[in-house]
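quick one
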Amino acid sequence: MEKRGILYEGKAKQLFETTEPDVLWVTYKNQATAGNGAKKETIAGKGELNNQITSLIFEKLKEKGIPSHFIERLSDTDQAIEKVEMFPLEVVIRNVAAGSFSRRLDVEEGKDLPFPVLEFYLKEDALNDPLINDDHVLALELAAEEEVAELKKQARHINQALISLFKQAGIRLVDFKLEFGKTKEGTIILADEISPDTCRLWDLKTNDSLDKDVFRQDRGDIIPLYQEVLNRLNQL
Ligand code: C5P
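structure w/ cytidine-5'-monophosphate:
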């Protein structure tokens, strides 16, 4: 398989066509952004770490019977993935109050939520990815009713698998964002990435952040933290 022309460039990844019609090539970039690109920096080593962490998590999920678009890791920064039609949605699951949930609803950061709270966001940079509800998803025809049910079911199942995976690594899964796509057969599968860029990960003992909040809030260098997440997952 060979890399062909670029299909899409996002904030953290580039997507290329390949010689295989159903396979795409993704390259993880070193760019870090926050606030929908308002804060932007190049951080050497970030692409490599997120590629390795995402690849490892997708492999662990596969072992637990949860499929994704991930096919294989090709190099330090590259992956082969199945071509899917993406839903223009971000599915966020929150186990613990933090971030925009705490700000919007004035809930103390770190408060355990009584059950995992699921939210949809519209993936639209021009609108700052607004929070939307199920009716919005249906009315804007972003997904059909049975697809909404399937997205929620899969996201909640993935949450349980990730909670237990991170717990074994001494990490509390506070919240995270998932994206899903549809294969050419019409099956809904997990796509995009799962990394410290897209999850809030707190050390179980100290509650220290091991994720992008440290970049968002100018609290220091994220590379040693992302490396720590990778090292702990690698030991499982
Ligand atoms: O900012 P907020 O609290 O809504 O983020 C919830 C979770 O979703 C966090 O783990 C964050 O890293 C992730 N997220 C993301 N991409 C976005 C928005 C949020 O990965 N565009």
